[in-house]
Amino acid sequence: MGLNLLLEGPASSSAVEFAERRLGFVPDAAQRRVLEGGSRRLLLCCSRQWGKSTSAAALTVYQAVEVAGALVVCVSPTLRQTGEFLLKVRLFLDVAGVAYRGSKLSLTLANGSRIVGLPGREANVRGYSAPSLVVIDEAARVEDSLYYALRPMLATSGGSLALLSTPFGERGFFWKEWAQGGEQWTRVEAKATECARIPAEFLEEERAVQGAEWFAQEYLCSFVGMRNQAFRGEWLEAAKREGLRAQALGFRFKESML
Q1: What is the pLDDT of residue 119?
Q2: pLDDT the model gives residue 124
Q3: Separation of alpha carbons 135 and 237, rounded Å
Q4: pLDDT tens-digit series, residues 198-218
Q5: How many CB atoms lie within 10 A of CB 181?
Q6: Is residue 247 predicted with pLDDT exceeding 50?
Q7: Distance (Å, whole) CA 24 – CA 26
Q8: CA 147 vs CA 75, 150, 190: distances in Å
Q9: Is 235 strand, coil or helix?
Q10: How many C-beta atoms surround the C-beta of residue 174 within 10 A?
Q11: Fewer CB within 10 Å, N or C, the chain?
Q12: Alpha helix positions (H), the chain
């Protein structure tokens, strides 16, 4: 059996069946699409508090339990967030009755599979090879350099890549893959207005407090444009490539110049 479960599927069960039967997690329609996969490249663009980390944790446990010797690499913008994600993973392992050992950021299962959590810094992720699955949580807030350092890990394993995030403007690799990444990506969109777990009354309150544009980003999967950005994203990317620091530019562009 190959390592890539999102393509081939395990002999014993599907990821949805595994989540329901072993983890006690009953996914909604969009979460089922996340678990079912269908390609080696998954993009989930979702509302805040929709359950993306829980869905990704279920997918992580499924991969590690069903494939002996698998390596699953999990990345978030900060070490704290990665630790919170691995906590969800450990809770699912406990529910499933799967034995494991290790630390807050590195787990080894009895079947030899490893689940490794990494912080969002490019310098700290190199050295791992041939993962069967790479999960980047809160991907819109992860630096491009980290993303491009992670991708070569998949060169020989044929492993899968899952990017999960709430939007954070028309910038960075998450937006580029969502808008321009091509047909190799399976895209799943999950708005708060389509999620039965988020009350309509709460959303109306949030819309009034946050304003239409911010609400659209946080809850309606909208990649907010350039109107509220001090610098155009492409200018910042060019500055990074040239080795400049954004704060060293020393001026701000007026909205009329955008």
Answers
A1: 78
A2: 66
A3: 24
A4: 999 999 999 999 999 999 999
A5: 16
A6: no
A7: 6
A8: 10, 5, 23
A9: helix
A10: 27
A11: N
A12: 5-8, 15-22, 29-36, 52-66, 79-96, 144-150, 172-180, 200-210, 212-219, 233-241
- pLDDT of 157 reads 84
Whole-angstrom distance, CA of residue 48 vs CA of residue 1: 36
Please give the structure tokens belonging to residue 49: 């508090």
User: Tokens 């009755």, residue?
Assistant: 97
Parallel, antiparallel, or unpaired for β 71-75 and 160-165? unpaired
How far from 3 is each of 71, 147, 152, CA to CA, in Å?
A: 9, 21, 17
Domains of the chain and CATH, by start = 5-198 (3.40.50.300)
Q: What percent of the chain has pLDDT over 90?
A: 68
Q: What is the dihedral of CA 131, 133, 139, 144, to 10 degrees?
A: 30
CA 221 to chain centre: 14
| Alpha carbon distance 212, 220 (integer Å) | 10
* Per-residue model confidence as pLDDT tens digits over 145-176: 999 999 999 988 889 999 999 999 999 999 99
